[in-house]
Amino acid sequence: MKKLLPLFLLGSLGVSASGASAQSLTKPEATLVGTVTKQLPETMSFLEKVVNINSGTLNKEGVRQVGDLMGDELKKLGFAVEWVPLPDSLNRAGHLVATRTGKRGKKLFLIGHLDTVFEKSLPMEPYTRVNDTTAAGQGVNDMKGGDVLIIAALKAMQTQKLLDDTSITIYMTGDEESSGGPESRRDFIERARKNDIALAFEGAQGLHNVTTGRRGSSSWTLTVKARTGHSSRIFSDLGYGAIYEAARVLTEFRRQLGQEQYLTFNPGLIVGGSSVKYDDKTARAETVGKTNIVAESALVKGDLRFLGEAQKEKARAKMREIVEKSLPLTGSKITFADGIPSMDPTPANENLRMIVDKVSRDMGLGPVGAVDPGSRGAGDVSFVAEFMPCLDGLGASGKGAHSIEETLNLKEYPVLIQRTALLLYRLTR
């Protein structure tokens, strides 16, 4: 027999008493929701602890430290925990994997990541409670908030003995923000394929949206060489120099490709001068130049985001065509590297969205729709999207990801944990 959620829990859900009649939770589900609320102080304390550890992708020690803390929590919940190391040549920390094996319900593959975009060389932005509805800090929603959300939902389930006989694999990668390449995802893909459903906990876009499709991401590098000499001879026998040539290429990229739906390309780094050096391990560039010397070298590094392999390959072909039309006495070369494939919206993903929608309506929160694939960047879930139904955007909500203004929505965070706990419970029955 189904019962309404007790009114004393409505405040934690962000709904009014007038919405109680819309709720349709069983007694175990209502108890599960209440358990999340009771455990919230511990959850927030743990979130603050991990946010205050720098875990930029290239800070291998920091990534591992966060992973060890997550692993300790998962061990307490009965998961077998291991660390998947990567070759030293990849300059990445590795991945955290936690597993439970049972026979009840669907086999779930839950995806998080331990790293952030904030490298150790950047100023540290600690966890700060801005006000009653907002917290700030590096990775507070992307995606330490999502990782802690997973653990909090599972902790509530374990408290109510609802994890017994379930099959759940939690995979938190150490290099989602800057992947070490195909070798770094080999184990990830192999383990995922043993499961029925993949759920990823990148940042939520509010309570009423999830991600059924998202773009892929690859990288590109533009290198330019030109004749050098006294600046008074530019535009004549020395040609145009490397910096003007780099500017030409970027302008044509924007002009010819900038209006295509779902396609974006961002030049995230550019340097030019008499000489250029770039260190992949630290993501640092150095250049030397003078105003009266025509620039001999230029370097641009960027990303390319797309929906589907066809769009990616078409864009690359056009970019190569633009690069080949160099200014006089300059020469440009562009290379591409695959990163994360796209996650195409599928009927199977849509069916998963409908399950989340039902959970949300039963909680009295209203409907849950699918966001425009173009509104999301790439994510680890895309590596396994061709093998099973997937959803993303199930994590923490907030604003300003990848910036010093990154925030977490404290009003929605408890509700998202509760929704996840109920979702996992229903999928594993």
TrEMBL record:
It comes from the Bacteria. Transmembrane segments: none annotated. InterPro entries: Bact_exopeptidase_dim_dom (IPR036264), Peptidase_M20 (IPR002933), Peptidase_M20_dimer (IPR011650), Peptidase_M20A (IPR050072). Keywords: Hydrolase, Metal-binding, Signal. Residues 1-22 form the signal peptide. It holds the Pfam family M20_dimer. GO terms for molecular function: hydrolase activity; metal ion binding. Residues 212-327 form the Peptidase M20 dimerisation domain. This is M20 family metallopeptidase. It comes from Spirosoma rhododendri.
